[in-house]
């Protein structure tokens, strides 16, 4: 196969780490920074939205979002993300990665601002408008998943490709942390400027009228990082692998990469034709099912299972911390101070568990491999979930211990399947289907996020009807919910066995795209089916 490998692709695979690699990481990574900020910032403000729009002063507890409204506010962005992953993943293979890359970013900018400007004459009107813009925000975010992963994969050299793709995804951790920090700054500023009594002291005045600006500022800030990187995203050339292997324009691929790598590269159009003619099967074909069917099943199911647990924990940290007593009861705080306390909690978890986990993956993924990291991550997530759930009542009087254990679940999610489920689909599928297959895998993940977000919303409610949030039926409680999530993580261990190891191999070696059209297809294909050991 090496004899049939395009020179431009060989040059990319063998290239030393250069400035353009870091530029690509930042440009693609800032999209993920924005994605994480936008998706997870909603968890910082849902309690505030409940207080502002649904407080009944005759009740002893401040207002919370009704179950159907909470489900819509938490879930619409994920539904939009799922749709965007499928649509832009497909479009990225049809039109090219670069041509649709800027569109997703502008959609995120516009909808971040529009979310903060949500209007209505009634609470239902405001929530409906917010959900509408959150859906389209999610649609743009969805496109960033397959496009960013595919672009970074196709730009990287084979020696450090895993680290580069993981570094793009690791920007998600900084996005989550920034969301917490922005909420901290805004809420602290408003709390200092507009003093308000706790709800238990004065129900009417505990929510200052100016609090309505807080959630809007937090949501609109998500447009800033996306807007800053738009110009540079438009300056990136199309990836050589798309140009050569999908668009079949060897001359343009050589010219683009000559500028990027600052070397002279020869256009080899006859090799492009050979590679294209020997690998033309589509997504819905027996040949794809034979070569990559189990791989797609593995990447999709693993991402689905991971996101059930990951998004449940991330979106509902505030509820878990309240349940164990780490956050004060809502009635003992005013509305603005509650935002501050929730933001402190999220920032601490991001700083202690989330961000370190991402960068452990970046540092080690090209040494110990994707398969090992994913298997290890699912295993330890299972262990720590059960360790939190089984002696759950012990943790009620040991908040510091609970926080440490809870942080470790995030650490091993990110030094584990949350990173690898993003990396692997960008490596193991053919160039003409790479973005589509990554989009399908990511969409399966977001389906898991929807299941996790909506399921946790109801399941984590107390088994005692007197202790449930207003409007919610009794659930199975936080302890039993953690047991369920631990079991979900355990399933991820088994489905990881379907995912191949891609460490140290070129993309074409993994997919067989440069097979000689001489009748050796079957033999060559079997040699690229990497076992996960």
TrEMBL record:
Q: Which InterPro entries match?
A: MFS_dom (IPR020846), MFS_sugar_transport-like (IPR005828), MFS_trans_sf (IPR036259), Phos_permease (IPR004738)
What processes in GO biological process is this protein linked to? phosphate ion transport
Q: Is Transmembrane helix one of the keywords?
A: yes
CDD domains referenced in this protein's UniProt entry, alphabetically:
MFS_PhT
- Major site of localization recorded for this protein: membrane
- The UniProt entry's coiled-coil ranges are none
Which membrane topology term applies here? Answer: Multi-pass membrane protein
Q: Which Gene Ontology molecular-function terms are recorded?
A: phosphate transmembrane transporter activity; symporter activity
Gene Ontology cellular component list: membrane
Which residue intervals define the domain Major facilitator superfamily (MFS) profile in the entry? 24-504
Q: Output the Pfam families linked to this UniProt entry.
A: Sugar_tr
Q: Which domain of life is it from?
A: Eukaryota
Polar residues: compositionally biased ranges: 522-533
Report the subcellular localization. Membrane
Q: Which residues cross the membrane?
A: 20-45, 65-88, 100-119, 125-142, 163-190, 213-232, 294-312, 348-368, 375-394, 400-424, 436-460, 480-499
Q: Which portions of the sequence form the region Disordered?
A: 507-533
* Record keywords, A-Z: Membrane, Phosphate transport, Symport, Transmembrane, Transmembrane helix, Transport
Gene3D superfamilies associated with the record: MFS general substrate transporter like domains
Q: Does the keyword Secreted apply?
A: no
The family note in this entry says:
Belongs to the major facilitator superfamily. Phosphate:H(+) symporter (TC 2.A.1.9) family.
Function text: High-affinity transporter for external inorganic phosphate.
How is this protein named in the record? Major facilitator superfamily (MFS) profile domain-containing protein
Query: Upper lineage ranks?
Result: Eukaryota, Viridiplantae, Streptophyta, Embryophyta, Tracheophyta
